[in-house]
């Protein structure tokens, strides 16, 4: 499988093709601001794995994700940290 790892704000990065999986490990505010771009760069049926936020942020992240057509497939909560696995419908 081909792996493309890039660091930086998504608006500053360039991608030739949509992805099967995107991993974003950063705080809630950045995740919310960039969620539409993550969605845009995912293949239909692709997965978005979010982490690096607090468990109380899950509701806000899911609200924005759902409005974009991203469905929660799994969540993990450890101590005060949360992670979400979303799938593009």
Question: What would you say this structure looks like, in words?
Answer:
It is a single chain. By secondary structure, this protein is of the alpha+beta class. 27% of the residues lie in helices and 42% in strands. The protein has helices spanning 28-40, 58-68, and strands at 19-25, 42-54, 70-78, 81-88. The chain has a four-stranded mixed beta sheet, covered by helices on one side. The longest helix is centred in the middle third of the chain and has 13 residues, at 28-40. The model has no long low-confidence stretch (mean pLDDT 94).
Show the helix and strand layout.
Elements: E1 19-25, H1 28-40, E2 42-54, H2 58-68, E3 70-78, E4 81-88
Parallel strand pairs: 1-2
Antiparallel strand pairs: 2-4, 3-4
Helix pairs in contact: 1-2
Stretches with pLDDT under 50, minimum 5 residues: none
Estimated share of beta-strand residues: 35-45%
Head-to-tail CA distance between termini: 23 Å
Largest beta-sheet details:
4 strands, mixed
Count every beta strand, where a strand is a DSSP E run of 2 or more residues: 4
Individual helix count: 2
Helix/strand/pairing class, anyone?
alpha+beta
Shape: globular
Q: Using the CA coordinates, give the radius of gyration.
A: 12 Å
Output the helix-strand order. Answer: EHEHEE
Helix content: 25-40%
Strand order of the largest sheet: 1-2-4-3
pLDDT averaged residue by residue: 94
